Amino acid sequence: HVNVNPNFRIYYTVSGKIYCPRQFKDWEFGGSVSCQKCGQAWGMEMIYKSVPIPSLSIKNFVVELPGGRSTFKKWKSVPCQMEEFNYVEFCEDNLSDLI
Questions:
Q1: Residue 56 to residue 42: CA distance in whole angstroms
Q2: Can you tell me the distance from the alpha carbon of 79 to that of 75, in angstroms, rounded to the nearest whole number?
């Protein structure tokens, strides 16, 4: 899952290049994404159609729900709806200076 909030960039840093021998058709591995304040690993940056996008691993977060806080190992276990990623909308919101 990716964070599409244009303001999210101020909260994380990207370091190093993640190596993976596996190749993907539409995207490639970028660097490791971590909290800018404390350094906690959050996931990785994926390069999708030449655009870097933070991809977050839910196991690195505590989720606040109406019944309290919970941790999850997989996104599909989180009891909420996620919007589908819209590449064009993401580019318009985050790369407006290039369009």
A1: 6
A2: 9
Contact 91, 99 (CB under 8 A): yes
Structure tokens at 65: 């729900």
CA nearest to 33, candidates 11, 61, 66: 11
DSSP 32-75: EEEETTT--EEEEEEEETTEEEEEE-GGG--EEETTEEE--SSG
| Distance, CA of 37 to CA of 17 (rounded, Å) | 20
Q: Which amino acid is at 75?
A: W
41-90 confidence digits (pLDDT tens): 999 998 888 888 899 999 989 999 898 999 999 988 988 887 887 878 87
Amino acid sitting at position 7 = N
